[in-house]
Amino acid sequence: MIILGTEELIQAESILKQSFPESIKVYGCIFNINRGKPHNLEVIADQWPEFTVIICKPKVQGTKDREGDFNIYSIYSKNKDSLKSFLNTPGVINKDAFTLLAGVDIRHLGAVQEFADQHGVPWKVKAVMNVLQLQDEGQLQFIESSAGLRVAPLSAAHAHLVNSTWKYGGDRNSYNSVLNYITHNPSLCVIEEGGTEPVSWLLVYQHAALGLLYTLPQHRRKGYAKLLVSMMAKNLLDRGHPVYCFVEKENDFSYKLFTSLGFQNSPDYRAVWFELNQRQ
Which residues, at least 6 apart from 230, have a Cβ–Cβ distance to it below 8 Å? Predict the structure, then answer.
């Protein structure tokens, strides 16, 4: 096991960019690390520079945010056998701790299942995701008349509102994650004329994916979600930032929204969120 230092992380960013979409989640983590974003991550590889597995994992487990609470590992592996071998390497994973392996290539899913079964570790497939990456900037859509609307970054004061509507939010640890996203990553929201609070918003995760897109029910069907995704995508592209998102396989509405804006997925690739042990 090799822990990547500053020079290796710069090199890894360049290498991983050649293997999208499979590598994009790990790439996103490293992209933000290399730009000084606050993080509780270390990046490990099975060998260097000719790695076959690279993982971003918490330096300290159990920190008081969602990433630490869920002990999230972001994984890129070139083949199933290398992944299984690396998971068995001492120091890579604590087999007794609750761990969420986020972004396992569905074609390598057998490796983590076999690892868990071999060690008697309870496991569960939490979610299967489409990985949608912006391919056609020309399909982004902007409202012709935005008179009366104010589009601006979220502020720390909005973290409670965002956390209260997040599917994976609602507690103190998720609030801390939302606050971190707002404070250190790009975000956008829509505030209607005469209003003071956001009615629609979009954030960027620690791994650089678009996320937490939400419009309050009474303000839907006005094109706000498409406007925010389009504006954010344009801003990120101008800064050399990856533009992608994860959409759960069953979420047809979000899938159609993003694909209508020029995002595409690779037909033979899905990312799996895989739980080891039960969360206490």
Answer: 140, 141, 142, 261
What backbone torsions phi and psi does residue 15 show, to the nearest 5 degrees?
-65, -45
CB neighbour class for 162 (10 Å; exposed up to 12, middle 13-18, buried from 19): buried
Considering the entire predicted model, what is its pTM? 0.94
Q: 3-state DSSP helix/strand/coil percent for the chain, to nearest 5?
A: 35, 25, 40
- Residue 157 sits at the vertex; the CA angle it makes with 153 and 162, to the nearest 5 degrees, is 75
Tell me the per-residue pLDDT of 171-218, one tens digit each, with 9 for 90 and over: 999 999 999 999 999 999 999 988 889 999 999 999 999 999 999 999
Q: Is the Cβ–Cβ distance between 103 and 271 less than 8 Å?
A: yes
N-to-C CA span, the chain: 29
By the 10 Å C-beta count (0-12 exposed, 13-18 middle, 19+ buried), 112 is classed as buried
The Cα–Cα gap between 105 and 243 comes to 19
Buried b / exposed e along 230-263 (16+ C-beta atoms within 10 A): bbbbeebeeeebbbbbbbeeebeebbebbbebbb
* Residue with tokens 């007794």, as numbered in its chain: 96
- What are the DSSP E strand ranges found in the chain? 2-3, 41-45, 53-58, 72-77, 99-105, 123-134, 149-152, 187-192, 200-204, 210-215, 244-248, 263-264, 271-276
Residue 190: name the closest of 222, 234, 156, 157 by CA. 222
Q: Report residue 173 as tokens.
A: 């640890």
